[in-house]
Amino acid sequence: MKLKEMSQPLMSGRMGNLVYYVRKGKQCVRRYGIPGKKRKKGNSQAKREANVRFGTTQAYYKYFCEKVSADIWRRAAALQGMMPHNLFFSVNSQYFGMDEEGNGALVDCERFRFAEGELALPREVRVERDGDGWRAVWQDERLAVSGAASDRLQAGVIYDALPMGVRMALEVEGTRGDGTGRFVLDGGMMGREAMERRRRELEAAGRHEAWMDAEGELPEGRNGGAHVYLYFMREDGTAFSPSAYFRLTIND
């Protein structure tokens, strides 16, 4: 486990049952081995899956903060008196696990929570194709505290062609008061061509995933589509709503 605290010097030594040390300029920590205490041998499948889930969730949170925003979970955690990464883990860790090859993966995109917060999510949000983009429509039930007409639509996305990547959709526009908004997905990341590119990348890296054996139509969840998460952000960026999930494909 690596620790990073820019405001404090790097530490070395033992504190309780933890040993702090520096490796290649980075702060690290490990458990202290109690002399004479026998360690359990072996590594059960359940323990391995738990370790993979923990590491993958933590890495995904860090990637999320870099590519999307650190403010979403920081604000939500402050409201609950928690650390941001702990809240993200408590909400989302159950949706991570191992793929067919034993690698860490987000295995339940539908229930994954992209955003959380105190703003209200409008009723009956739906998405439909709109030219080269997508249009979202909703019923507005804004309240003075839980929502305002100026709240801005946001759209997060995870593409099939980049399952462990997370980013924002393109050209997102619309406010809560509009009752409708529009966003564009990256065409280069969708469709069979995108999945064939993903196949070549995996083969070049010496990796294999079960969907690569499919002929004709790709398996469910691997058809070159995208997992989209719509939510709202206060105009000044200080508050967010929970996210709503949509599964979109290039043929919809």
Topology, element by element:
Layout: E1 2-3, E2 13-15, E3 18-23, E4 26-31, H1 45-67, H2 71-80, H3 84-92, E5 96-98, E6 104-106, E7 123-130, E8 133-139, E9 152-159, E10 167-168, E11 170-173, E12 180-184, H4 192-204, E13 226-233, E14 244-248
Helix pairs in contact: 1-3, 2-3
Percent helix: 10-25%
Structural class: alpha+beta
- CATH fold annotation of the domain at 115-248: Immunoglobulin-like
Binned strand content: 25-35%
Low-confidence stretches: 1-8, 216-222
- Rg from Cα: 21 Å
* Strand and helix order: EEEEHHHEEEEEEEEHEE
CATH class of the domain at 115-248: Mainly Beta
- C-alpha termini separation: 43 Å
Widest sheet: strand ordering? 1-4-3-2
Mean pLDDT, as a whole number? Answer: 79
Structural summary, described in words:
- By secondary structure, the chain is of the alpha+beta class.
- Among the domains are: 35 residues, no CATH class; 134 residues, Immunoglobulins (Immunoglobulin-like, Sandwich).
- Helix content is 22%, strand content 28%.
- The protein is built from four helices and 14 strands.
- The strands form four sheets. Strands 1-4-3-2 form a four-stranded antiparallel β-sheet, with no helix packed on it. It has a four-stranded antiparallel β-sheet with strand order 7-8-12-11, with no helix packed on it. It has a four-stranded antiparallel β-sheet with strand order 10-9-13-14, with no helix packed on it.
- It is globular and about 60 Å long.
- The termini are far apart.
- The N terminus is likely disordered.
